[in-house]
């Protein structure tokens, strides 16, 4: 059904990659203004099963999106609460959650406007969060979204996230995210 395809496509976009780098960078301690912290991890997004991590909350009323076979439409809106792990497998160590929503906001490409809070729950950034916003075209090999802020260690942070689909099957996707985050010196000294 329409929502199924949409969920799968959108899920794929989201999941690509947060775990590894974040924790590697942590070994170097607090970053300086010129050196972004690198966080690497994976995001597990699934619209199927008894406890889906992403749900369709509104069917778009616009035209069908290219390549969706008619199952995804301009205006489809999803909410997600995805696990973030260090590695790509579901059993990998959990390092946080990605909570947010995305809406198909392009009349042509299968591209969504995505906004999410990345809540970190492990390592040196435990308790801090990143605010991420951007355009996510699920068909592109790599997407770039913006880090527009954060909390805790990441208060007033800026940066970007490189987003890839690691795997995609049915309504489930694993996304690989690399976040490069510039920590505000002002916030660090606060
Ligand atoms: C969206 O459309 C599908 C297919 O018609 C339907 O099964 C589903 O309940 C709808 N979801 C919402 C949130 O309207
Ligand atoms: C993260 O912080 C919370 C709250 O302080 C704490 O309960 C939890 O054990 C910490 N997790 C890890 C993996 O350090």
From TrEMBL:
GO biological process: phenylpropanoid biosynthetic process
Key word Cell division present: no
Range of residues in the leader sequence: 1-19
Pfam families per the UniProt record, alphabetical: Dirigent
Cellular localization per UniProt: Secreted, Extracellular space, Apoplast
Keyword annotations: Apoplast, Secreted, Signal
Role summary: Dirigent proteins impart stereoselectivity on the phenoxy radical-coupling reaction, yielding optically active lignans from two molecules of coniferyl alcohol in the biosynthesis of lignans, flavonolignans, and alkaloids and thus plays a central role in plant secondary metabolism.
Family: Belongs to the plant dirigent protein family.
Subunit structure: Homodimer.
PANTHER family xrefs: NUCLEOPORIN-RELATED
Record protein name field: Dirigent protein
């Amino acid at each position: 059904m329409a929502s199924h395809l949409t969920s799968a496509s959108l899920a794929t976009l989201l999941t690509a990659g947060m775990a590894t780098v974040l924790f590697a960078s942590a070994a170097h301690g607090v970053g300086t203004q010129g050196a972004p912290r690198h966080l690497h991890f994976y995001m597990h997004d699934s619209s199927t099963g008894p406890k889906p991590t992403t749900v369709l909350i509104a069917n778009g009323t616009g035209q069908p999106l290219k390549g969706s076979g008619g199952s995804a439409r301009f205006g489809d809106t999803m909410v997600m609460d995805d696990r973030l792990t260090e590695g790509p497998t579901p059993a990998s160590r959990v390092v946080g959650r990605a909570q947010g929503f995305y809406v198909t906001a392009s009349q042509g490409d299968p591209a969504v406007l995505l906004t999410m809070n990345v809540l970190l729950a492990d390592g040196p950034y435990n308790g801090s969060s990143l605010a991420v916003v951007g355009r996510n075209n699920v068909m592109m090999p790599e997407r770039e979204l913006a880090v527009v802020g954060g909390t805790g260690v990441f208060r007033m942070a800026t940066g970007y996230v490189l987003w890839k689909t690691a795997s995609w099957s049915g309504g489930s996707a694993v996304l690989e995210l690399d976040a490069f985050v510039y920590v505000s010196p002002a916030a660090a000294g606060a």
